[in-house]
Design a protein that fits this description.
The chain is an all-beta fold and about 90 residues long. The chain is built from no helices and 8 strands. About 0% of the residues lie in helices and about 65% in strands. It has an 8-stranded antiparallel beta barrel. The chain is globular. This is DUF5640 domain-containing protein.
Length: about 90
């Protein structure tokens, strides 16, 4: 599931441009999203974009738009739709 994650450009901490959200993508295929609440999940690269999962259920996606990362994430009480820049 996580092949090709090492050295991927998504790895690192990203700050929301319109929200105070932060998302950290780790090279082991895990992520942590914070916007008041915190959720942890996994990510995988799919056809050039990224799919985000929490407990094996798809909860969002991420895609590069130039140098910014567009993230849409919905998991219970934590919902994020924003563009992010690398910290």
């Amino acid at each position: 599931m996580f092949s090709g994650c090492l050295g991927d450009k998504i790895v690192g901490t990203w700050n929301g441009e319109k929200t105070s959200a932060t998302i950290t993508f780790d090279k082991d295929g895990s992520f942590t999203a914070k916007l008041g609440l915190e959720i942890k999940g996994t990510w995988e690269k799919t056809d050039g974009d990224y799919t985000l999962y929490v407990q094996g259920v798809k909860v969002g996606s991420a895609a590069f738009e130039g140098k910014v990362l567009r993230v849409t994430l919905g998991s219970g009480l934590l919902n994020i739709s924003d563009t992010f820049t690398k910290a």
